[in-house]
Amino acid sequence: MSVYVKDITMLASMVGPDQRLKLSELLSFAQEASIAHTTELGMGREMTLDRDLLWVIGRQRFEIARLPQYDEHVTLASWPGMTMRMLFPRFYELKVGEETLIRGVAIWGLIKKRSRKMIFADDYGIKIPSEHREGELPFPKPLVVPSLSKKAALTATWANCDLNGHMSNTHYLDFAQSLLPPSFWKKHPVKAIEIDYEKEIRLGEEVEVTYGKKGNAFYVVSDRFSLKIEF
Question: What is the Cα–Cα distance from 91 to 88, expressed in whole angstroms?
Fold first, then answer.
């Protein structure tokens, strides 16, 4: 069975002021599980990074029943869906015993490091076996974004960029949550997060974003990405 499983204890560095898992840390869990499992499947850095190929995320969604708390022990599972030409779906599940806390799905792809163009994995001998499990989230559709009026600037700094030389997908949520006061997040438990990545924000770049609340959701949008947090 092509499923990656890891037991995790919620450490102080993983949780926020509410003593619950940070949203950015959730994305970090998913990212590291994806890398670790791909390596287990024989498609690690020797097949990708060392050949100037980079894994990137195009779209992801997580649905949250509740966030795990400090010192809680959870089990993270991740498995690949069926490859679709240039796209590699991957699913995630976070559980405590039989209780499902979080379910997620991400659409990954491979790009050339220099050109930043998508490639066909088959051309490079990269193959990921697929798995199917009950309860998988459907593939997320493109976000429909309402009109937003507030503006802010987002800069890709040394601290928030990853080994690909662009802003890490985890930091988009840190930035989004910083745009509202802490009191808001204390009163509004997050039920889902969804991000479309249209174009990377490379180290040193600054982009203008618009943001705002509409109904039961908070949006942050630019020409590079669209982000939605549901509560």
Answer: 10
DSSP 135: T
Buried b / exposed e along 176-201 (16+ C-beta atoms within 10 A): bbeeeeeeebeeeebebbbbbbeebb
CA distances (Å), 63 to each of 125, 144, 194, in order? 33, 17, 9
Domains 1-140 and 142-231 share a fold: yes
Cβ atoms of 39 and 45 closer than 8 Å: yes
Give me the amino acid identity at 169: N
Domain spans of the chain, in order of start: 1-140, 142-231
At 111-131, the pLDDT tens digits run: 898 888 898 888 888 888 888
CATH architecture of the region 1-140 = Roll (3.10)
Answer whether CATH 3.10.129.10 is correct for domain 142-231.
yes
Tens digits of residue pLDDT in 33-76: 999 998 988 888 888 888 989 888 999 999 999 999 999 999 99
Residue 209 CA, chain-centre distance (Å), reads 19
